Please model this.
Amino acid sequence: MTAAANAPVILNAVDVTKYYETRKALDGVSLAIHAKEVVVILGPSGCGKSTFLRCLNGLETVQSGSIHFHGRDLARPGTDWRSVRQRIGMVFQSYELFPHLSVRDNLLLGPVHVQKRPRREALGQAENLLGRVGLADRLDAFPRQLSGGQKQRIAIVRALCMNPEVMLFDEVTAALDPEMVREVLDVILGLARNGMTMVIVTHEMGFARAVADRVVFMDEGRVCETGIPEKFFTAPDTDRARRFLSKFLY
Ligand code: ADP
Model:
């Protein structure tokens, strides 16, 4: 969406390898993410997309390779992931909202308790962001009172309330009823228009094509092909990508 190719690299994974016991889930994955760039990772189920995102956020450890962020290699032991996760936000398929907390308290937990910001300022930001996703009136609601699409929009706002530099989205519409997919994807499209740096795993091909600056196609734990969406969706370089795309209507 934005011309990000000349922008500085802010997150740089180099030759990342990850095993789950003896199973190799990532086999030398390298990916440099530029400021304000929207990278969409596509690929068949089980190819390592989610694992890769989780490694960028410290939810999985890697066996080799490096992940450079602000002059640090996050893959090295001793990384303060709690602090890194304030700068690299992540949204999951399953929302991960606290069910016993209101929307207000879900949104303020990070900014007030982790970042130690003044409650009034954090609440102002939360209200502003809620308005932007069309949920200004749900501050007092509890997650059980919200639809899946609303919960996911709240989860996105919760991540944004930390003022992250990068956002990771892991199949955030996969658990939603079809009529709620659009409302969530529209929020992400809005973030892209505002220049948020994002890495997105999705199976929504029309959305991927619309939002991506760059598509990364993975297969069997490796980056198989990477390119601009116009090229990838009309004339992919590899048979694997062609086979993958032939399974979708978009
Ligand atoms: P994708 O997101 O592309 O569907 P995943 O990253 O979830 O793929 O999985 C990559 C591979 O790692 C798959 O073979 C999957 O079965 C395996 N895997 C994922 N998570 C775990 C786990 N917690 N324990 C063991 N194997 C896992």
In short: The longest helix spans residues 178-193. The chain has a mean pLDDT of 96. The first strand starts at residue 9 and ends at 20. The radius of gyration is 18 Å.
